[in-house]
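Saturday, quiet lab. Running sequence design on the structure tokens for the scaffold JK sent over.
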């Protein structure tokens, strides 16, 4: 299953198309989109395979797909744009614009702490329903009342879901808009954080491969003991790792979840829209170039309290690390965000390159998924 690949590729990037095509031929992909801009010029725009294996619906150029944590870069950009417009001091206490947050040991938390995964609120205290998750004011209220797991600002850990409502509250309080509403109005058409019925009808259905293809494999350069520790945490329903990543409750093919506008993981879009988002970000049309450089500078790097491996973050953007592995040819300065199941989108200001790969077959990089890695490697070989 998979099918023919369609689209455009600059002749210099023919090897990228070859790798993309091979990923369907060998069953690594079901359906996917891939877009690359280099020196702000479109050099790769490919799509192929099946959007919904139940019906055989093909993946078209405009087929949107859930991108999971690729969402965080869009939400971070919205929050940073609002902060710049309203002169929010990122290094001052959050209570300046969110007074209710200043309780239970969170009084000194800064906006930068929220954006850099230092807030100490990586998981909710109780299970959260999809209906609750669709109400950003309610979600922010729950987080404002919680006691942090660690002293804010002293450690970092991946706020897999809570990041969206923490950063998104900055947008909501200053603009009276959800992140999804703000993104469509001020960032780029086609960035759906909260997909309406028409978009949902076109959205690719995500799937998992057969269980025998999900065994954890060689994951160089991750140490084996690190991988084993992470695997054990994902199997433990009481672990902070699982509680942070699996709550709110819901499946991403569920219309209620797709419509819910989860601002950390709910983005539904195409590879071209996401690549153009990063291109526009590099061009200084969302954030002033100096502000963008500050926002994409490293804030934290090292052991992650949730992921139990190395992570690195700027102000909302992930930087290359054990959880965002890039080929050696990729230079310093890259920022972006991977998404669960193999999605990846990033910007490289040095090459004015933006990249977005969005598949609907959810493989795990710890199970040997190298689809995005191989494509990135081929892109840089062609530059």
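Result came back. Writing it out in full:
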């Amino acid at each position: 299953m998979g099918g023919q690949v369609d689209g455009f590729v600059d002749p210099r990037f023919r090897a990228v198309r070859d790798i993309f095509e091979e990923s369907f031929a060998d069953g690594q992909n079901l359906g996917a989109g891939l877009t690359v801009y280099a020196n702000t010029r479109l050099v790769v725009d490919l799509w192929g395979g099946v959007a919904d294996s139940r019906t055989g619906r093909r993946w078209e150029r405009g087929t949107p797909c859930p991108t999971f944590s690729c969402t965080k870069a869009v939400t971070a950009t919205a929050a940073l744009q609002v902060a710049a417009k309203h002169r929010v001091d990122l290094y001052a206490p959050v209570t300046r614009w969110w007074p209710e947050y200043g309780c239970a040991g969170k009084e000194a938390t800064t906006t930068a702490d929220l954006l850099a995964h230092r807030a100490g609120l990586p998981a909710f205290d109780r299970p959260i329903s999809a209906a609750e998750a669709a109400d950003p004011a309610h979600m922010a209220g729950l987080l404002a009342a919680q006691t942090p797991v660690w002293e804010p600002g002293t450690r970092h850990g991946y706020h897999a879901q809570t990041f969206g409502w923490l950063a998104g509250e900055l947008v909501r309080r200053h603009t009276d808009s959800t992140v999804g509403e703000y993104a469509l109005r001020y960032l780029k058409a086609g960035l759906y954080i909260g997909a309406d019925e028409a978009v949902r009808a076109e959205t690719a259905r995500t799937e998992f491969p057969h269980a025998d293809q999900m065994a954890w494999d060689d994951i160089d350069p991750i140490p084996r003991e690190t991988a084993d520790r992470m695997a054990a945490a994902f199997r433990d329903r009481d672990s902070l790792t699982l509680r942070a990543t699996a709550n709110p409750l819901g499946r991403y093919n569920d219309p209620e979840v797709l419509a819910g506008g989860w601002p950390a993981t709910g983005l539904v879009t195409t590879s071209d829209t996401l690549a153009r988002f990063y291109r526009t970000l590099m061009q200084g049309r969302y954030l002033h170039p100096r502000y963008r450089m500050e926002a994409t500078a490293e804030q934290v790097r090292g052991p992650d309290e949730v992921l139990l491996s190395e992570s690195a973050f700027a102000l909302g953007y992930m930087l290359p690390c054990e959880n965002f592995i890039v080929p050696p040819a990729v230079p310093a300065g890259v920022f972006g965000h991977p998404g669960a199941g193999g999605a990846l989108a990033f910007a490289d200001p040095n090459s004015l390159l933006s990249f977005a790969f969005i598949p609907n077959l959810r493989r795990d990089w710890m199970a040997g998924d190298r689809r995005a890695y191989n494509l990135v490697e081929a892109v840089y070989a062609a530059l």
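Notes for JK: Residues 130 and 250 are 6 Å apart (CA to CA). The chain has a mean pLDDT of 94. Ask whether to fix the surface positions before the next round.
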